[in-house]
Amino acid sequence: MEKYYLFYLLALISEVIGTVSGFGSSILFVPIASLFFDFKVVLGITALFHVFSNISKIVLFRQGIDKNIAFKLGIPAVIFVIIGAILNKYISQREIELLMSILLIGLSVFLLIYSEKTLAQTNQSLFLGGGISGFLAGLIGTGGAIRGLTLMAFNLEKNIFIATSALIDLGVDSSRAVVYFLNGYMATEFLFTIPFLLMISIVGTWLGKKIINKIPQTVFRYIVLIVIIITSIVQTVKYIYS
To answer: Is the pLDDT of residue 219 over 90?
Structure first.
């Protein structure tokens, strides 16, 4: 039972950091949960945890939702997360994780160096960002970094960034949760974690919002990019030495 206490503590930390960094906790929660559970169980638990987390963010940051971005980025994300979740049974994730990590490091460093660069909010960029992030979320359990990088390239105000990302993520996680359940990834013996993860999502988001309110917009941008770089480097090192 002691290992679950540690798991819940780390889940809370990942939720706070995920809220402050703006793109959700999956990029931290997935590797943390992998220390305690089988990868397929991790996918199921992550999807459920994120449903709770996203609802908490939508409620607490609801005034910042940009419906236009949420719709145009969210629809392809939901479509492709289902495709990725279905293909999860047949495609090896390790090489894709490595490729994604290297790509994220390069793009994040570019946006850090050229902070004045922004991406036009065209339909093409929204559809592409949503499709890629959704597909990766279904396939390897985390696509929030791709979506976060896309939204950061638009240079959105922090509350708009968090609220809009959460609304999109809710559709993505709800969709893949259904597929994972049908795939048998949600073992009944782990369902006891649900009430604890629900409480953690609420408390973690609330704490994260308290911190966000004290962070200037320019600092928020750097936090998002630096968190993406650090987690991507960790994933790359993990791949090399595994």
So the answer is: no
Query: What pTM was estimated for this model as a whole?
Result: 0.77
Half-sphere CA count of 90, side-chain side, radius 13 A: 5
Phi, psi of 208 (to 5 degrees): -60, -40
Tokens of 84: 């990725």
Residue 136 in tokens: 């990766």
22 contact partners, CB below 8 Å, separation of at least 6: 148, 151, 152, 158, 161, 162, 165, 220, 223, 224
What pLDDT, on the 0 to 100 scale, is given for residue 203? 95
Tens of pLDDT, residue by residue over 61-77, are 988 888 888 888 888 88
Q: Give the Cα separation of 201 and 54 in Å (integer).
A: 8
Q: Coil, helix or strand for 118?
A: coil
Phi, psi of 213 (to 5 degrees): -60, -20
How many residues are listed for the chain in this entry?
242
